[in-house]
Amino acid sequence: MTSIGTGYDLTNSVFSPDGRNFQVEYAVKAVENGGTSIGIRCKDGVVLAVEKIITSKLLKVGANKRIATIDRHVGAVSSGLVPDGRHFVSRARDEAASWRSTYKTPITTKDLASRMGGYLQAYTLYSSVRPFGITAIVAGWDSELELPVDGQVGSGPSIGSGGKVEGKTYGGPGLYMIEPSGMYWGYYGAATGKGRQTAKAELEKLDLAALKLSLQDGVKEAARIIYVAHADNKDKEFELEMTWISNIDGPTKGRHQEVPKDILEEAENLAKKYLEGEDDEETKDDDKPAEGDKMEE
Amino acid sequence: MNHLPQAWGRPRDDIYGAYDSSYLQSHGPNQHTQQPIVTGTSVVALKFKDGVIIAADNLASYGSLARFTDVKRLRTFADTSVVGFGGDVSDMQYLDRLLNSLDTEEAYSSSGHTLNAQNLHTYLSKVFYKRRSDFNPLWNQILVAGLDGESKPFLASADLLGTTFSSPSLATGFGAHLAQPLLRKVAPDEEAAAKLSKEQALEAVKESMKVLFYRDARSLDNYSIAVITKDGIDLKENEKLEKQSWAFADQIRGYGTQIN
Amino acid sequence: MAAMFSQNPLMNGPNYSFSQAPTTAGDGFKQHSFYPYTDNGGSTLAISGNDFSIIAGDTRSTSGYSINTRYAPKVFKIGGTTSSQDDATLVLSVVGFAADGEALKERLDTIVKMYRYQHGKPMSVKACAQRLSTILYGKRFFPYYVTAILGGLDEEGKGAVYSYDPVGSYEREQCRAAGAAASLIMPFLDNQVNFKNQYMPGSGEGHALQEREKIPLPKNEVEDLVKDAFDSAVERHIEVGDGLQILIITKDGIEEKYLPLKRD
């Protein structure tokens, strides 16, 4: 830790001589200790999944949700400080609602990511605040239909000026990851938290850029990846929480919802079965170096 | 001529007179809605064995002008309820957005619990009553159709004053005079409504829409109709009145130009 | 065309709306044409007995000459702890503007519930009656447009009926009719409950007869009076009819009855 003792890490918004904001980097450390969160962008929907580490046996199973609905068609999950995640969600809901009241149309996933990126960035600028101790993944499905504005009563001219444009397509899946610095990118597959390295490696194998993966398979992959990523952290128990957003013709009709119990259980069973298969292989050749956080730096 | 950019596209005072900006003044009493502007006419609805049928035509009038002819006055909520709006269209749009945000807020908690038609009606009537008590009414009469907490058919009315009531059949505006008697004939009470088949109810509602089109000058033969049951909402927004017969019009005497 | 080239001397050339300071509105303020009240018709009636109170109301709701519905209750149990109000001890009837009636009922119900939770006992009719008056007067300058009647049993177990005007003036009475057919039912009640204008035959010279002795009526007789009163009101008043809701309060609780009335 080159920052310690220099004094440049004690205040937010102050640069170190080599141009770093150490408070932001410390926030990233908080994220790196959090339970793994991932998002997968599929051809007909988006999946969010989180590894919820069980901190006490006294906590009710299935309660204390970590994935939140931002607007009807958008969900978000974060790794890091849970209360910071809650505030992120609260602000995101306000942004989505205010967008609706201004533009009379749902916010796109991209615009929401932009607004939230701007919001998080502002928390790197002032000494009176600290950056968010989370990295958030925002997933949404922007309607593929030509949406009426909220409250629209008619359908407008069918041809000509102001009419329908032949062959124009709208919407689709959106997946964004926003970091404590306020930086955000769009992803085919996103991962953050403790198991992100493993998860990223798994996500890369899926060839998500081809946009061939179906939502149904995406759910299974998401469950598997969380289980695989957890394998490095075996001493702690966890719950898998998953939500999805399908297209209009899909199971959620464009809305952000929890993955139904039966589908979730099926995906978990497949994930467990996969891990068992992995263990057999590992006993054959366990010369793989353990993937540590240091590799990233 | 004044060539300043500020003048571009502005009406000239020497031709049109000075612009009356009095409405921009912020002093004086607060101005609130005092009359509806663009309006929808009747909404009719009838309960039957497994649910409710609700219908409204697709016209929005500007006074006596048939201003918009593709206006959807049946609004769905949470895939379980339908609200039919009569009265001011802009207030309808405001309420539709309000219901949209309510639905979004309901989705924040993942309990899977949704507001049923009865909850929705209570909510809307409180909005109406609050606004009338502020002397700033939302100029509508609405029917809320769906299912109640026990999954039984639910139908109720609310209006700009906050007045509410429920009945096996309901109709707003002109429909209260012309359609309601026809609907009451097939469903005089809850027991009778609970025996009606969907087909019988559909026929009665469509017949009511036809009678309304014959005699309500602010109506249209294009209409929306929704059937709400526990299986969901079947909403059709571009129906045409069938089997119209204007033979009776021949017999009308005494209003307008005629020879005999 | 002439207008296009005519110069307004006062304005020294063509003028445009943007440059004008707001012109003043005409003299006097615009009047709101919105009227926040309506009359939903119907009638209510309450009679107190020795150990019971009866409150009744028809179930018709009207707008002008139209019937909104044939079943809209005007009589409500107040202050129970469940949604079914089985453990309520008080009854409120409201007639006039139904939306205000509903709002008033909800407010009183909440207050009486809170009293019950805070004090661990039901509110007395006397206390509730005073509280209702305060609520009504609180909106003295934008009143609840309703005639309310509150019924229950007093601290001695005797039937109690309190009647109100829309702004909270109230008194305890033997009996009271309110609403559209109040003027039809009240004189009937004066005669049949309080025996007004009833004299004992042959008890004096000429018209100087002795009044009929006043006795508290038994429950079944009062029930019959209520039915007769409404059957008669239905005959003569168009806003009354469809159904009759009767709530009978005794020490054993509140019994509810529904009887059909003429629907014409």
UniProtKB/TrEMBL annotation, chain A:
* Annotated localization: Cytoplasm; Nucleus
Give an example GO biological process.
ubiquitin-dependent protein catabolic process
Q: Which GO terms describe its cellular component?
A: cytoplasm; nucleus; proteasome core complex, alpha-subunit complex
Its keywords, alphabetically, are: Cytoplasm, Nucleus, Proteasome
Keyword Nucleus among record annotations = yes
User: Which stretches make up the Proteasome alpha-type subunits domain?
Assistant: 8-30
Where are its TM segments located? none
Q: InterPro entries attached here?
A: Ntn_hydrolases_N, Proteasome_alpha, Proteasome_alpha-type, Proteasome_asu_N, Proteasome_sua/b
SMART domains documented for this protein:
Proteasome_A_N
The family database entries (SUPFAM superfamilies) matched by this protein are listed as: N-terminal nucleophile aminohydrolases (Ntn hydrolases)
UniProt main location, coarse: cytoplasm
One Pfam annotation, family name?
A: Proteasome_A_N
Q: Where is the composition biased (Basic and acidic residues)?
A: 285-297
Statement: the UniProt record of this protein carries the keyword DNA damage: no
UniProt-annotated stretches for the region Disordered = 272-297
Tell me how this protein assembles: The 26S proteasome consists of a 20S proteasome core and two 19S regulatory subunits.
Which family does the record claim for this protein? Answer: Belongs to the peptidase T1A family.
Protein name as catalogued: Proteasome subunit alpha type
Gene encoding the protein: PRE10
TrEMBL record, chain B:
Q: What is the protein's species of origin?
A: Lachnellula occidentalis
Signal sequence coordinates: none
Q: Which family does it belong to?
A: Belongs to the peptidase T1B family.
What is this protein's record name? Proteasome subunit beta
PROSITE patterns per the UniProt record, alphabetical: PROTEASOME_BETA_1, PROTEASOME_BETA_2
| Listed InterPro entries | Ntn_hydrolases_N (IPR029055), Proteasome_beta4 (IPR016295), Proteasome_bsu_CS (IPR016050), Proteasome_sua/b (IPR001353), Proteasome_suB-type (IPR023333)
What is the stated purpose of this protein? Non-catalytic component of the proteasome.
Q: Where in the cell is it found?
A: Cytoplasm; Nucleus
Q: Does the keyword Iron apply?
A: no
One annotated Gene Ontology cellular component of this protein? cytoplasm
Q: What is its main location?
A: cytoplasm
From TrEMBL, chain C:
Q: Does the keyword Nucleus apply?
A: yes
Q: Which GO terms describe its biological process?
A: proteolysis involved in protein catabolic process
InterPro entries attached to this UniProt entry:
Ntn_hydrolases_N, Proteasome_sua/b, Proteasome_suB-type
Q: Where in the cell is it found?
A: Nucleus
Gene name, per UniProt, is: PRE7
User: What name has this protein been given in UniProt?
Assistant: Proteasome subunit beta type-6
| Chief location bin | nucleus
**What Pfam families does this protein's entry cite?**
Proteasome (PF00227)
Recorded GO cellular component terms are:
cytoplasm; nucleus; proteasome core complex
Its domain of life reads Eukaryota
Tell me the keywords, alphabetical order: Cytoplasm, Nucleus, Proteasome
Is the keyword Nucleus assigned to this protein? yes
The source organism is Lachnellula occidentalis
